[in-house]
Every structure is written in structure tokens, then in C-alpha cells.
Design goal:
This protein has a single domain, classed as Rossmann fold (3-Layer(aba) Sandwich). About 30% of the residues lie in helices and about 15% in strands. GO terms for molecular function: hydrolase activity, acting on ester bonds. It comes from Streptomyces dioscori.
Length: about 290
């Protein structure tokens, strides 16, 4: 009799423990929906730093001010990846110019995942120069299931400004000093590893990212062809008068440019590159 009571007690204890465990398991966050609007968080990612440090607040001061003046409602954040960076919303404390871009991409991907994607929140990204390669690598490796990268990365829209998707000859100048310069050289092993398409659809999570790439014929650092990659859904080129750094600072006026969705438009006077970036993350397109 006592043995039967003991078995019954153990059975009930096990059932109670299972019930408590079931009730306390946190359900996985559902994927957010795609939509137009200015409520998304926007993460700004800077480019290569010859000095090994950037002031994120100054680097994107013009762009963030422009977004605010246009009544952007979401938070305007900055991601820094050099230990010397300051005034960034997040800084990779071990970052140097000799950290591979894949390593930085892993840090960025997990930053977005841990703070937003795991909670079911989506973000937009505006990246300048080498920063665009970091974002591209983050989405590429997340979609491929590379160890250390998160499965879910809810980045709705990405805009790259003067990013050397096809490499830059400027990489040769410092390639013997810094790994990141070497990886930005045309036909580098890093660039080849990213393939010839932009990471748009993540089959692991069912999520789609919309890309807009922007370049300028007057860049001087990244060619007009390298800056648009040639495979993004939306591509914009400025004819003249916009330098590499001005792609992230010029926010007013009309500038001779053209845009490609399915085919190139005629050259005409269009919005500034910063306003182009704002419109690109404001309106989401999956077609």
C-alpha cells in the first residue's frame, strides 16, 4: 500500500513539473509583417576608418538630422565596430582594422538578432562604404546557416551608399597593413565568397530584405559600377557633383541621377542621396 502511494506521489510530482515547465516556456516570437512607414528603427553603419576610429554621431549627423526633420518616428541608431569608436548606440569593443569583415558581420548580425529579431521586431539599415559589406555578409551568412550567425535576421530594408560591392582600388593602398583593406580589393576572396546576388530571401526564416544601392560617378573611391553591385532590386546612380563622403551628407537639392527598378530611367534631376536613402527605407517593396 505504501509502495503504491509512493508511486502515485512520484507520478503526480512528475505531471506537476511538466505542467509548470510547459507554462513557463517562452513562445517564439512571430515574424513581423512587411509594411511602409517611418516607425522602424534605423541602424546606421559607418565605413572603414583610416585612423581606426569614428565618431558615430558626427559621421551620420546630417543623415540622422534629415530623417528627424522629415518626421521619422523610429529610433535612429548607430553601430560602431572599432574599439576607438565613440558616440555609437553599440560598439564592438574588440574591433580593429584587422578584424575580418565576416567577424564584424557576425557581431552585427547577433546584435540585431539579440536586441530585435528574437523579440519579433524588424529594423532598417543605412550603411556607408565598407559598412554595406558588413551588412551584406551578415544577411548572407545568416541565410546560409553559417555557424555563429543567427537564423532569424529581420532586416526589412537595406540602403548602401558608396559601398564597394565589386571592390575598390583604394583597397590596394592599405592591403598590406589592414585585413579589411585586403578584403575590399576587387576579386578578393571575401567578395567572391558573397556570391553574385544580394541576400534577399532567407529560406530559414521566410524573411525577405529589400535592397537599394546608391553610387556616384564622382565618388573617387568606389566606382559607379561597384557601388550599385548590378544585382540589387533598386539601384541609383548620381551623375556628378556627389563625392564618396557626400553620399551620406548631401540631403537637399535636386541632383542629376537615374534609378533602376526593372530598367534604368532617363537621367533627370532627382532627390539628394540622403533623401533617397530615407525614401528607400520608408517604402518597402518585395516585388
Amino acid at each position: 500500500m505504501q509502495r503504491s502511494l509512493r508511486r502515485l506521489t512520484l507520478f503526480l510530482s512528475a505531471v506537476l513539473a511538466l505542467a509548470v515547465t510547459t507554462l513557463t516556456v517562452t513562445p517564439a516570437s512571430a515574424a513581423p509583417g512587411h509594411s511602409d512607414g517611418s516607425s522602424n528603427r534605423v541602424i546606421f553603419v559607418h565605413g572603414f576608418a583610416p585612423t581606426g576610429k569614428h565618431d558615430c554621431a558626427k559621421y551620420f549627423s546630417d543623415a540622422r538630422t534629415h530623417f528627424k526633420n522629415k518626421n521619422w518616428r523610429g529610433n535612429l541608431l548607430t553601430f560602431g565596430y572599432y574599439k576607438g569608436d565613440k558616440n555609437c548606440s553599440y560598439t564592438y569593443k574588440n574591433g580593429t582594422r584587422n578584424k575580418s569583415l565576416n567577424t564584424v558581420a557576425k557581431v552585427f548580425a547577433n546584435y540585431v538578432s539579440d536586441n530585435y529579431s528574437k523579440k519579433g521586431d524588424k529594423v532598417d539599415v543605412v550603411a556607408h562604404s565598407m559598412g554595406g559589406l558588413i551588412v551584406r555578409a551578415a544577411l548572407y551568412h545568416s541565410s546560409k546557416g553559417t555557424p555563429g550567425f543567427p537564423k532569424k535576421l529581420y532586416i526589412e530594408d537595406v540602403v548602401t551608399l558608396g559601398t564597394p560591392h565589386g571592390g575598390t582600388k583604394a583597397g590596394y593602398a592599405c592591403s598590406r597593413l589592414f585585413a579589411q583593406c585586403k578584403e575590399m580589393k576587387p576579386r578578393s576572396a571575401f567578395l567572391k565568397s558573397l556570391g553574385t546576388t544580394m541576400p534577399k530571401h532567407n529560406r530559414r526564416s521566410g524573411w525577405t530584405t529589400d535592397w537599394t544601392t546608391v553610387s556616384s560617378y564622382n565618388d573617387g573611391v568606389v566606382s559607379e559600377a561597384s557601388g550599385i553591385a548590378g544585382v540589387a532590386k533598386h539601384e541609383v546612380q548620381y551623375k556628378a557633383g556627389i563625392s564618396h563622403n557626400e553620399l551620406k551628407t548631401v540631403d537637399t537639392g535636386r541632383h542629376k541621377s537615374r534609378i533602376k527598378h526593372s530598367h534604368w530611367s532617363a537621367w533627370s534631376l532627382r532627390v539628394s542621396p540622403v533623401e533617397q536613402a530615407r525614401q528607400a527605407v520608408l517604402f518597402h517593396s518585395t516585388t
